Amino acid sequence: MAKTTVPIELSSTPSIVDNGTATAITIDSSGFVAIGSTPSAWRTSFTDYALDVGRHSALYDQFGGNTFLTNNIYRNNSGALTYKTTNAASYLEFGGGGMSFFNAPSGTADTTATFTNRMTITSSGNVGINTSSPTVGKLQVNDGSGATVAITRTSGATSGNLGVIRFGNTDIDSNLANIIATQDGSTTSSALTFETQSTGGATAERMRIHSSGYITTPNQPMFFAGGLASGSYTQGNAIVFNTERFDRGGNYNTSNGVFTAPVTGIYHFDTTLLISGASSSYLYDLEFYTSNQSYYGQSRNQYSSGSTGWADNYLAHTGSWTVDMDAGDIAYIKYSTFGGGGIYTNAVYTHFSGYLVG
User: Fold this and answer.
1) Domain count of the fold of the chain
2) Which of 114, 137, 170 is the last residue of a domain?
3) Full residue range of the structural domain in which residue 90 is found
4) DSSP codes joined into one string, 79-114
5) How far is C-alpha 97 from the chain's CA centre?
């Protein structure tokens, strides 16, 4: 280890020398200290203190309470932050329980540097990028042309995640909802998926925007049921379409013919009934009901010979409704004949369908 000596007689700029040949620490007459260099011309008009380290770095305590960790700057007697050498400059400022990061482009030694606040962390933990006063949430990114926040992966692939934004709570479940960007079949295509978690369940995909722009909602309520069991239809009661082709969400009941809305929204329903044994002397009413509305008589048809393109004595009766339903409301079809004829039970010709519009 090199020997150090402290001069017995201190000059106006005392120093600690290394092995008697090189100055290791210098203290100037204003109390500023430098290690491996001489102190910069720091401001003396206020009670400031600074420790220079080498040619570029410094720890600076400013009158008024703030502390700076700096690169290539000092504060001169005019109060200006000034370049030490011809180069770029930056500093980290601590004060008021927070901290801010600043930088300046390359400038000439001993000229004033113009700094830009690049990031601030407030005493409350808010983080601002390119703003000194982040007030919108815990992270605020600001840019005059519109800010871009990038999440990327190191290399492209034909599948796998590009990035995930996750929502949750730290005390019970940190994975309650996700927005996930994925590669969609090639290194130059992407899809966006949205996941949520039901009570007691696990996160699952609820919507996907494909690279082609198609939007799919795998849990969107919809059903298609057709056909009737022979002899199951009773006039004045709900028609039980007993054969499901699909029932996303399981909201249609093949036992009683009732659809139950799982969520409040606008729903659309369609039905087609093929009536056999029709006659021009009979009337037929197609009736659609929800919990709070009936559409009785709005689809009344009277048979006319040859009206279906089939052989006489058949009548195709259709209906379509768009309705507002609350969660738990039900919807179903009734049919009444005034005369004779019955519903053709084949699912190809007799069916009931519906879906959530939004």
Assistant:
1) 3
2) 114
3) 4-114
4) S-EEESSSEEEEEEEEETTEEEEEEEEEE-TTSB--
5) 31
Instruction: For residue 13, give the H/E element and its range.
Output: none
CATH of the domain at 288: 2.60.120.40
In angstroms, the Cα distances linking 88 to 38, 73, 114 are: 20, 9, 10
In this predicted model, what pLDDT tens digit does every residue of 243-265 receive, in sequence order? 999 999 999 999 999 999 999 99
pLDDT tens per residue, range 128-172: 999 999 999 999 999 989 999 899 999 999 999 999 999 999 999
Query: 160 exposed, middle or buried (CB, 10 Å; 0-12, 13-18, 19+)?
Result: exposed
pTM of the entire predicted model? 0.72
Residue 192, token pair as written in the block? 């966006």
Residue 350 in tokens: 């007799």
Q: Does 110 share its domain with 9?
A: yes
Q: Is 332 exposed, middle or buried (0-12, 13-18, 19+ CB in 10 A)?
A: buried
